[in-house]
Amino acid sequence: MNNSIGRPVLKRLLAAVVILSPFSGSYGDDLTVGNTTASNRNTPIRVSEEALRIHHAGMLFDGHNDLPWEVRTKANSSFDNLDISQRQPSIHTDIPRLREGGVKAQFWSVYVPSDTMVTGDALSQTLAQISIVQQMLKRYPDDFELASTANDIERIVAEGKIASMMGVEGGHSIEGELQNLHRLYDLGCRYMTLTHSKSLEWADSATDDPRANGLSDFGLAVIAEMNKLGMVIDLSHVSPETMKQALKASKAPVMFSHSSARAITDHPRNVPDDVLKLTAANGGVVMVNFFSRFVIPTDLAVRDEEAHGTIHDVVDHIEHIIRIAGEDHVGLGSDFDGVPRLPDQLESVATYPRISQELVNRGYNARQIQKLLGGNMMRVLKRAEEVAVQLKANE
Protein backbone atom coordinates (compact mmCIF):
# COMPACT_ATOMS: atom_id res chain seq x y z
CA MET A 1 0.00 0.00 0.00
CA ASN A 2 1.18 3.52 -0.79
CA ASN A 3 0.74 5.79 2.23
CA SER A 4 2.18 8.84 0.51
CA ILE A 5 0.16 12.05 0.38
CA GLY A 6 -0.10 14.47 -2.48
CA ARG A 7 0.78 18.17 -2.35
CA PRO A 8 -2.85 19.37 -2.08
CA VAL A 9 -3.39 17.16 0.97
CA LEU A 10 -0.12 18.33 2.48
CA LYS A 11 -1.13 21.96 2.00
CA ARG A 12 -4.40 21.29 3.81
CA LEU A 13 -2.51 19.65 6.66
CA LEU A 14 -0.17 22.60 6.91
CA ALA A 15 -3.08 25.03 6.79
CA ALA A 16 -4.74 23.18 9.67
CA VAL A 17 -1.76 23.68 11.95
CA VAL A 18 -2.19 26.25 14.68
CA ILE A 19 1.00 28.13 15.49
CA LEU A 20 1.37 28.34 19.24
CA SER A 21 4.26 28.32 21.65
CA PRO A 22 5.28 24.74 22.44
CA PHE A 23 5.69 25.82 26.05
CA SER A 24 2.21 27.28 26.46
CA GLY A 25 1.22 24.51 28.87
CA SER A 26 -1.92 23.75 26.89
CA TYR A 27 -2.67 20.33 25.45
CA GLY A 28 -4.04 22.24 22.47
CA ASP A 29 -0.63 23.60 21.50
CA ASP A 30 0.16 22.17 18.14
CA LEU A 31 2.95 22.52 15.62
CA THR A 32 5.18 25.44 14.79
CA VAL A 33 5.92 25.11 11.08
CA GLY A 34 9.00 26.64 9.54
CA ASN A 35 12.55 25.90 8.49
CA THR A 36 14.39 23.05 10.16
CA THR A 37 16.79 24.36 12.77
CA ALA A 38 19.73 22.70 14.47
CA SER A 39 18.82 20.65 17.51
CA ASN A 40 18.95 22.60 20.73
CA ARG A 41 17.42 21.19 23.87
CA ASN A 42 16.12 24.62 24.89
CA THR A 43 14.77 25.67 21.49
CA PRO A 44 11.27 24.95 20.18
CA ILE A 45 11.29 22.41 17.38
CA ARG A 46 9.99 23.88 14.14
CA VAL A 47 8.45 21.26 11.89
CA SER A 48 9.53 21.66 8.27
CA GLU A 49 7.51 20.66 5.21
CA GLU A 50 10.09 17.92 4.59
CA ALA A 51 9.61 16.39 8.04
CA LEU A 52 5.83 16.72 7.84
CA ARG A 53 5.84 14.99 4.45
CA ILE A 54 7.94 12.11 5.85
CA HIS A 55 5.71 11.89 8.89
CA HIS A 56 2.36 11.79 7.10
CA ALA A 57 3.66 9.37 4.46
CA GLY A 58 4.44 6.88 7.22
CA MET A 59 2.18 4.59 9.23
CA LEU A 60 2.11 6.14 12.70
CA PHE A 61 1.01 3.23 14.89
CA ASP A 62 1.15 4.09 18.60
CA GLY A 63 1.42 1.20 21.03
CA HIS A 64 -0.47 2.56 24.02
CA ASN A 65 -3.12 5.19 24.70
CA ASP A 66 -5.29 5.27 27.84
CA LEU A 67 -8.17 7.36 26.51
CA PRO A 68 -10.75 4.68 27.48
CA TRP A 69 -9.76 5.01 31.14
CA GLU A 70 -10.04 8.80 30.96
CA VAL A 71 -13.53 8.45 29.48
CA ARG A 72 -14.44 6.14 32.35
CA THR A 73 -13.08 8.35 35.12
CA LYS A 74 -13.81 11.82 33.73
CA ALA A 75 -16.96 11.23 31.69
CA ASN A 76 -18.83 8.41 33.42
CA SER A 77 -17.84 6.05 30.58
CA SER A 78 -19.78 8.08 28.01
CA PHE A 79 -18.70 10.12 25.01
CA ASP A 80 -21.90 12.11 25.54
CA ASN A 81 -19.98 13.73 28.39
CA LEU A 82 -16.65 14.02 26.56
CA ASP A 83 -17.11 14.54 22.84
CA ILE A 84 -13.73 13.85 21.27
CA SER A 85 -14.84 15.19 17.89
CA GLN A 86 -14.06 18.54 19.55
CA ARG A 87 -10.81 19.65 21.16
CA GLN A 88 -10.76 18.57 24.79
CA PRO A 89 -8.00 20.44 26.65
CA SER A 90 -8.48 18.40 29.83
CA ILE A 91 -7.08 15.29 28.12
CA HIS A 92 -4.28 14.46 25.68
CA THR A 93 -6.38 12.85 22.94
CA ASP A 94 -9.19 13.95 20.65
CA ILE A 95 -9.97 13.51 16.97
CA PRO A 96 -8.75 16.91 15.72
CA ARG A 97 -5.38 16.42 17.40
CA LEU A 98 -5.09 12.77 16.34
CA ARG A 99 -5.47 14.02 12.76
CA GLU A 100 -2.93 16.81 13.25
CA GLY A 101 -0.50 14.33 14.78
CA GLY A 102 -0.83 11.99 11.82
CA VAL A 103 -1.96 8.98 13.83
CA LYS A 104 -2.91 6.17 11.44
CA ALA A 105 -3.33 3.25 13.86
CA GLN A 106 -3.69 3.03 17.62
CA PHE A 107 -3.69 0.39 20.33
CA TRP A 108 -6.31 1.56 22.85
CA SER A 109 -5.57 0.24 26.33
CA VAL A 110 -8.44 -1.50 28.12
CA TYR A 111 -6.62 -1.15 31.44
CA VAL A 112 -8.23 -1.96 34.77
CA PRO A 113 -6.40 -1.69 38.12
CA SER A 114 -4.47 -4.61 39.57
CA ASP A 115 -6.61 -4.53 42.71
CA THR A 116 -9.43 -6.05 40.67
CA MET A 117 -7.55 -9.30 41.34
CA VAL A 118 -8.66 -8.91 44.95
CA THR A 119 -12.20 -7.75 44.24
CA GLY A 120 -12.66 -10.55 41.71
CA ASP A 121 -14.02 -8.41 38.88
CA ALA A 122 -10.97 -7.97 36.65
CA LEU A 123 -12.59 -9.60 33.63
CA SER A 124 -15.93 -7.82 33.96
CA GLN A 125 -14.22 -4.46 34.35
CA THR A 126 -12.03 -5.18 31.32
CA LEU A 127 -15.17 -5.97 29.32
CA ALA A 128 -16.57 -2.62 30.45
CA GLN A 129 -13.47 -0.89 29.10
CA ILE A 130 -13.83 -2.75 25.82
CA SER A 131 -17.39 -1.47 25.62
CA ILE A 132 -16.06 2.10 25.86
CA VAL A 133 -13.85 1.47 22.83
CA GLN A 134 -16.81 -0.09 21.00
CA GLN A 135 -18.89 2.97 21.88
CA MET A 136 -16.18 5.20 20.40
CA LEU A 137 -16.06 3.20 17.17
CA LYS A 138 -19.83 3.38 16.81
CA ARG A 139 -20.10 7.09 17.62
CA TYR A 140 -17.29 8.21 15.29
CA PRO A 141 -17.46 5.81 12.30
CA ASP A 142 -15.86 8.28 9.90
CA ASP A 143 -12.77 8.47 12.09
CA PHE A 144 -12.26 5.02 13.67
CA GLU A 145 -12.69 1.40 12.67
CA LEU A 146 -11.81 -1.79 14.53
CA ALA A 147 -8.95 -3.72 12.91
CA SER A 148 -8.50 -7.44 13.48
CA THR A 149 -5.42 -7.97 11.30
CA ALA A 150 -2.51 -6.07 9.81
CA ASN A 151 -4.29 -6.20 6.45
CA ASP A 152 -7.31 -4.57 8.09
CA ILE A 153 -5.08 -1.77 9.31
CA GLU A 154 -3.79 -1.08 5.82
CA ARG A 155 -7.31 -1.06 4.35
CA ILE A 156 -8.73 1.19 7.09
CA VAL A 157 -5.86 3.66 6.80
CA ALA A 158 -6.28 3.75 3.02
CA GLU A 159 -9.91 4.74 3.63
CA GLY A 160 -8.77 7.71 5.70
CA LYS A 161 -9.74 6.35 9.11
CA ILE A 162 -7.71 5.52 12.22
CA ALA A 163 -7.30 1.77 12.55
CA SER A 164 -8.09 0.73 16.10
CA MET A 165 -6.95 -2.31 18.05
CA MET A 166 -7.14 -2.94 21.78
CA GLY A 167 -4.46 -3.97 24.24
CA VAL A 168 -5.14 -5.71 27.56
CA GLU A 169 -2.95 -4.07 30.19
CA GLY A 170 -2.29 -6.84 32.66
CA GLY A 171 -2.75 -10.58 32.78
CA HIS A 172 -4.99 -10.20 35.83
CA SER A 173 -7.75 -9.48 33.29
CA ILE A 174 -7.98 -13.15 32.30
CA GLU A 175 -8.51 -14.26 35.92
CA GLY A 176 -6.28 -17.31 35.51
CA GLU A 177 -8.32 -18.83 32.66
CA LEU A 178 -7.09 -19.34 29.10
CA GLN A 179 -10.67 -19.28 27.85
CA ASN A 180 -10.85 -15.65 28.97
CA LEU A 181 -7.80 -14.91 26.84
CA HIS A 182 -9.73 -16.27 23.86
CA ARG A 183 -12.74 -14.15 24.77
CA LEU A 184 -10.69 -10.97 24.85
CA TYR A 185 -9.03 -11.86 21.55
CA ASP A 186 -12.41 -12.44 19.93
CA LEU A 187 -13.50 -8.96 21.03
CA GLY A 188 -10.55 -7.34 19.26
CA CYS A 189 -7.69 -7.37 21.76
CA ARG A 190 -4.46 -8.02 19.89
CA TYR A 191 -1.92 -7.81 22.68
CA MET A 192 -1.83 -8.51 26.37
CA THR A 193 0.66 -7.09 28.84
CA LEU A 194 1.57 -10.05 31.05
CA THR A 195 1.35 -8.03 34.28
CA HIS A 196 0.59 -4.54 35.42
CA SER A 197 2.03 -3.08 38.63
CA LYS A 198 1.46 -6.19 40.77
CA SER A 199 2.94 -9.65 40.34
CA LEU A 200 0.61 -12.52 39.50
CA GLU A 201 0.87 -16.13 40.54
CA TRP A 202 2.12 -16.85 37.03
CA ALA A 203 4.19 -13.77 36.08
CA ASP A 204 6.29 -11.21 37.94
CA SER A 205 5.90 -7.45 37.70
CA ALA A 206 8.81 -5.02 37.53
CA THR A 207 7.32 -3.03 40.41
CA ASP A 208 6.42 -5.75 42.90
CA ASP A 209 8.01 -8.66 44.72
CA PRO A 210 8.33 -11.83 42.61
CA ARG A 211 5.80 -14.63 42.98
CA ALA A 212 6.65 -16.84 39.99
CA ASN A 213 10.42 -16.42 39.58
CA GLY A 214 9.69 -15.08 36.11
CA LEU A 215 6.98 -17.27 34.60
CA SER A 216 5.22 -20.27 36.13
CA ASP A 217 4.04 -23.24 34.08
CA PHE A 218 0.73 -21.45 33.60
CA GLY A 219 2.63 -18.36 32.48
CA LEU A 220 4.37 -20.43 29.83
CA ALA A 221 0.98 -21.79 28.78
CA VAL A 222 -0.26 -18.21 28.37
CA ILE A 223 2.70 -17.46 26.09
CA ALA A 224 1.99 -20.56 24.00
CA GLU A 225 -1.72 -19.75 23.73
CA MET A 226 -1.04 -16.16 22.69
CA ASN A 227 1.29 -17.43 19.98
CA LYS A 228 -1.46 -19.74 18.71
CA LEU A 229 -3.95 -16.89 18.64
CA GLY A 230 -1.63 -14.41 16.95
CA MET A 231 -1.92 -12.16 20.00
CA VAL A 232 1.27 -10.19 20.61
CA ILE A 233 2.96 -10.71 23.97
CA ASP A 234 3.57 -7.36 25.67
CA LEU A 235 6.47 -7.21 28.13
CA SER A 236 6.03 -3.69 29.44
CA HIS A 237 5.53 -3.70 33.23
CA VAL A 238 7.15 -7.13 33.75
CA SER A 239 10.37 -7.94 35.61
CA PRO A 240 13.63 -8.51 33.71
CA GLU A 241 13.47 -12.23 34.53
CA THR A 242 9.94 -12.43 33.15
CA MET A 243 11.11 -10.55 30.06
CA LYS A 244 13.91 -13.03 29.46
CA GLN A 245 11.80 -16.12 30.03
CA ALA A 246 9.03 -14.83 27.77
CA LEU A 247 11.52 -13.95 25.03
CA LYS A 248 12.94 -17.45 25.24
CA ALA A 249 9.52 -19.12 25.17
CA SER A 250 7.76 -17.09 22.50
CA LYS A 251 7.75 -18.36 18.94
CA ALA A 252 6.61 -14.95 17.68
CA PRO A 253 8.05 -11.45 18.08
CA VAL A 254 7.12 -9.66 21.30
CA MET A 255 6.46 -6.02 21.99
CA PHE A 256 7.06 -3.56 24.79
CA SER A 257 3.98 -1.39 24.25
CA HIS A 258 5.12 1.54 26.40
CA SER A 259 8.64 1.27 27.84
CA SER A 260 11.89 3.18 27.41
CA ALA A 261 15.62 2.48 27.85
CA ARG A 262 16.89 1.70 31.35
CA ALA A 263 20.48 2.68 30.49
CA ILE A 264 19.30 6.29 30.21
CA THR A 265 16.62 6.31 32.89
CA ASP A 266 17.17 3.76 35.65
CA HIS A 267 13.57 2.92 36.38
CA PRO A 268 12.25 -0.66 36.71
CA ARG A 269 9.62 0.06 34.05
CA ASN A 270 12.34 0.50 31.44
CA VAL A 271 14.19 -2.11 29.39
CA PRO A 272 17.80 -3.12 30.23
CA ASP A 273 20.36 -3.31 27.43
CA ASP A 274 20.71 -7.09 27.63
CA VAL A 275 16.96 -7.42 27.10
CA LEU A 276 17.11 -4.95 24.21
CA LYS A 277 19.57 -7.30 22.52
CA LEU A 278 17.36 -10.31 23.19
CA THR A 279 14.38 -8.41 21.78
CA ALA A 280 16.29 -7.76 18.57
CA ALA A 281 17.12 -11.47 18.29
CA ASN A 282 13.44 -12.26 18.82
CA GLY A 283 12.38 -9.78 16.12
CA GLY A 284 10.35 -7.71 18.57
CA VAL A 285 9.84 -3.99 19.09
CA VAL A 286 10.32 -1.61 22.05
CA MET A 287 7.85 1.28 21.88
CA VAL A 288 9.17 4.31 23.72
CA ASN A 289 7.01 5.70 26.53
CA PHE A 290 6.71 9.49 26.84
CA PHE A 291 6.04 9.65 30.61
CA SER A 292 8.51 12.15 32.06
CA ARG A 293 9.63 9.88 34.89
CA PHE A 294 10.56 7.13 32.40
CA VAL A 295 12.58 9.38 30.06
CA ILE A 296 14.38 12.05 32.10
CA PRO A 297 18.03 11.06 32.61
CA THR A 298 18.82 9.24 35.84
CA ASP A 299 20.97 12.05 37.23
CA LEU A 300 18.13 14.54 36.71
CA ALA A 301 15.61 12.17 38.29
CA VAL A 302 17.83 11.94 41.39
CA ARG A 303 17.80 15.74 41.70
CA ASP A 304 14.18 16.32 40.68
CA GLU A 305 11.88 13.33 40.30
CA GLU A 306 9.06 15.65 39.19
CA ALA A 307 11.01 17.15 36.27
CA HIS A 308 9.17 17.13 32.97
CA GLY A 309 12.14 16.72 30.65
CA THR A 310 11.88 17.53 26.96
CA ILE A 311 11.17 15.90 23.63
CA HIS A 312 14.94 15.56 23.24
CA ASP A 313 14.98 13.09 26.14
CA VAL A 314 12.44 10.92 24.31
CA VAL A 315 14.50 10.98 21.12
CA ASP A 316 17.61 10.10 23.16
CA HIS A 317 15.79 6.91 24.22
CA ILE A 318 14.88 6.18 20.60
CA GLU A 319 18.51 6.60 19.56
CA HIS A 320 19.78 4.41 22.39
CA ILE A 321 17.43 1.58 21.44
CA ILE A 322 18.54 1.92 17.82
CA ARG A 323 22.20 1.71 18.88
CA ILE A 324 21.65 -1.40 21.01
CA ALA A 325 18.86 -3.26 19.20
CA GLY A 326 18.83 -1.72 15.73
CA GLU A 327 16.44 0.46 13.74
CA ASP A 328 14.05 -2.47 13.15
CA HIS A 329 13.20 -2.80 16.83
CA VAL A 330 11.99 0.60 18.04
CA GLY A 331 8.59 2.28 17.99
CA LEU A 332 6.39 4.76 19.85
CA GLY A 333 4.15 3.87 22.80
CA SER A 334 3.27 7.29 24.14
CA ASP A 335 1.04 6.41 27.12
CA PHE A 336 -0.99 9.53 26.38
CA ASP A 337 -3.88 9.95 28.81
CA GLY A 338 -2.25 7.48 31.16
CA VAL A 339 0.46 9.62 32.75
CA PRO A 340 0.53 12.75 34.96
CA ARG A 341 3.52 14.46 33.32
CA LEU A 342 4.81 14.73 29.77
CA PRO A 343 8.00 16.22 28.34
CA ASP A 344 8.02 19.75 26.99
CA GLN A 345 6.93 19.82 23.33
CA LEU A 346 5.08 16.49 23.62
CA GLU A 347 1.94 17.70 25.34
CA SER A 348 -0.68 15.92 23.22
CA VAL A 349 -1.27 13.57 20.30
CA ALA A 350 -0.90 16.56 17.97
CA THR A 351 2.84 16.75 18.63
CA TYR A 352 4.15 13.52 17.08
CA PRO A 353 5.53 15.35 14.00
CA ARG A 354 8.05 17.05 16.27
CA ILE A 355 9.64 13.64 16.86
CA SER A 356 9.99 13.14 13.12
CA GLN A 357 11.54 16.60 12.83
CA GLU A 358 14.04 15.94 15.61
CA LEU A 359 15.02 12.67 13.94
CA VAL A 360 15.56 14.57 10.68
CA ASN A 361 17.67 17.05 12.65
CA ARG A 362 19.78 14.15 13.93
CA GLY A 363 20.37 12.77 10.45
CA TYR A 364 17.79 10.00 10.10
CA ASN A 365 16.24 9.39 6.69
CA ALA A 366 12.61 8.81 5.73
CA ARG A 367 12.92 5.02 5.68
CA GLN A 368 14.37 4.91 9.20
CA ILE A 369 11.82 7.36 10.59
CA GLN A 370 8.89 5.49 9.06
CA LYS A 371 10.10 2.21 10.57
CA LEU A 372 9.98 3.86 13.99
CA LEU A 373 6.59 5.46 13.40
CA GLY A 374 4.87 2.15 12.78
CA GLY A 375 6.62 0.04 10.18
CA ASN A 376 8.29 -2.04 12.87
CA MET A 377 5.04 -2.61 14.76
CA MET A 378 3.30 -3.64 11.54
CA ARG A 379 6.05 -6.17 10.88
CA VAL A 380 5.68 -7.63 14.38
CA LEU A 381 1.92 -7.90 14.00
CA LYS A 382 2.17 -9.57 10.60
CA ARG A 383 4.75 -12.04 11.87
CA ALA A 384 2.59 -12.89 14.92
CA GLU A 385 -0.26 -13.66 12.53
CA GLU A 386 2.01 -15.85 10.38
CA VAL A 387 3.25 -17.80 13.40
CA ALA A 388 -0.34 -18.42 14.51
CA VAL A 389 -1.19 -19.88 11.10
CA GLN A 390 1.89 -22.11 11.22
CA LEU A 391 1.15 -23.35 14.73
CA LYS A 392 -2.45 -24.16 13.86
CA ALA A 393 -1.32 -26.03 10.76
CA ASN A 394 1.00 -28.16 12.88
CA GLU A 395 -1.64 -29.18 15.42
How would you describe the overall organization of this protein?
- With 395 residues, the protein is α/β, with parallel strands linked by helices.
- It starts with 6 loop residues before the first helix and ends with a helix.
- It has helices at 7-16, 49-57, 67-75, 95-101, 116-119, 122-139, 150-158, 178-186, 217-229, 240-249, 273-282, 292-295, 298-303, 311-325, 352-361, 366-393; strands at residues 32-33, 46-47, 60-65, 103-109, 144-146, 162-169, 189-193, 232-234, 255-256, 285-288, 330-332.
- 43% of the residues lie in helices and 11% in strands.
- Strand 7 (189-193), helix 9 and strand 8 (232-234) form a beta-alpha-beta unit.
- The protein is built from 16 helices and eleven strands.
